[in-house]
Amino acid sequence: MANQDDFFKKVVSHAKEYGFIFPSSEIYDGLAAVYDYGQLGVELKNNIKQYWWKSMVQMHENIVGLDSAIFMHPKIWKASGHVDAFNDPLIDNKDSKKRYRADVLIEDHIAKIEEKIEKECAKAQKRFGEAFDREQFVTTNARVLEHQKQIDEIRGRYAECMNANDLDGLKQLILDLGIVCPISGTRNWTDVRQFNLMFATKMGSVIDDSDTLYLRPETAQGIFVNFLNVQKSGRMKVPFGIAQIGKAFRNEIVARQFIFRMREFEQMEMQFFVRPGTELEWFRYWKEERLKWHLAMGIPEENYRYHDHEKLAHYANAATDIEFRFPFGFKELEGIHSRTDFDLSRHSEFSGKKLQYFDSELNESYTPYVIETSIGVDRTFLAVFSYALKEEPLEDGSTRVVLSLPARLAPYKVAVLPLVKKDGMPEKAREVVDMLKEDWMVQYDEKDAIGRRYRRQDAIGTPYCVTVDSDTLNDNAVTVRHRDTMQQERVSVEQLKGYLRERLK
Ligand code: ATP
């Protein structure tokens, strides 16, 4: 699976073929950038959400959950700044008539320069072998330094334009960098314009302008407006957090790359309320904690990196992204933002309700500062799914497709397979299924030769296959096959539950 594009196509087709992800409204030719999760996709997605919820809410005494409504009072989006400033800069190519996000064109240009640096490193690595010191190389090699200088200059100019909302400057940067439309190959660009990403709808049977509601573009605001409700009813003491998982909607200008950028998606967000002045300490804490959460899934560290923001949103005093090496390169997977007291202050101002906290240790009231961790469920899905999908050469010269998902995320934990469909084996296998299904998602499969059934389970990421054969009926033992090593072990049926529990912990 050498070529990135080919591999990404495989990810998309594998997700569809095995019932993970379908295009929305497919029999009506689909709906752009909207997807449905199929029978296996919903399991993997739920497991991701559960993993996040457990590690954020269950494992932290001072973090509690919330499930706020998608519809909210329209003033909330005025207060949050989304009505006025939740925009992306768009630009059209006059020849191809294709629309792009100006910032993404620039980011992609930077990514190409980064690729050149990677190539230099790869070449040097080959040359120096074991002795290769990447850190030293990238800080001393003239070509790498020249590339890095270019990147820094572009980022600097870009941040300046964005901070000053200088759309002409942004267009000039695109022209100066010689960025061409990937379709037409020309530099015939329109001016850059701002485009608001919120979907609007109407509420009630009598409709006038004041009834315009927005589908929430993030779940965070539901947390802020419930700050006092949760703090008071839960007797929460600062520092504490409120976590929420839910749908968000954005009318993305360019929605490509499968479930990476959707118009309807799901977020897992946590707002952590702290004493003013301690926010940067907590920012560093959550920056590290969140990366640990990713690494605990078992994907090697080199697939993640931080990207600290130079252009800060108007409400933030520090921000970083955790980026993941997706099949199309490093891109944002999660954002960690120090949002100051912006949100609570604005909601106080717009609602006329004081959103403050009385700190009994300090004997004073203040508006807490906030650290936010915000991650997309769908992007996490794409990250683990694309990392896990592998084509492995086997000793006999054939290959197998295996989805080596972390066991805790796998849709099915166990498949129970009677070796053949006769001689009491299916009945015995059904007994084993009944014994296990209260604890885990278990699949029963009796169709086709055993080798093909193993392949099917490999392809959907089932960590263990339990085979019932003719000996089982005499010795009450089964064969357990491990997905990753393909090794097999004989385990007695009485010990099977304990055996699996130990390994699926
Ligand atoms: P991007 O720069 O990629 O548009 P963002 O900075 O706008 O992302 P945030 O507003 O920080 O994203 O949202 C937090 C998280 O929500 C992101 O890190 C991402 O995982 C997820 N997310 C945001 N937009 C989308 C989308 N259109 N489709 C899927 N997930 C998304």
The proportion of strand residues reads: 15-25%
Report the sheet with the most strands, covering strand number, pairing sense and barrel closure.
7 strands, mixed
Uncertain segments of ≥5 residues (pLDDT<50)? none
Query: What is the number of E strands?
Result: 23
Helical segment tally?
A: 17
Query: What's the arrangement of strands in the largest beta sheet?
Result: 3-9-10-16-13-12-11
Structural class: alpha+beta
Q: Nearest-angstrom radius of gyration?
A: 26 Å
- The proportion of residues forming helix, as a percent range, comes to 25-40%
| Apparent shape | globular
Gist?
With 505 residues, the chain is an alpha+beta fold. The chain has helices at 4-17, 41-58, 75-79, 82-85, 102-128, 134-140, 142-163, 167-176, 220-224, 227-233, 279-295, 342-351, 377-388, 425-436, 450-460, 472-475, 493-504, and strands at 21-23, 35-37, 63-66, 87-92, 99-101, 193-196, 200-202, 212-214, 240-249, 264-274, 304-308, 318-326, 329-340, 357-359, 364-366, 369-376, 389-393, 399-403, 414-418, 442-444, 464-468, 477-482, 488-492.
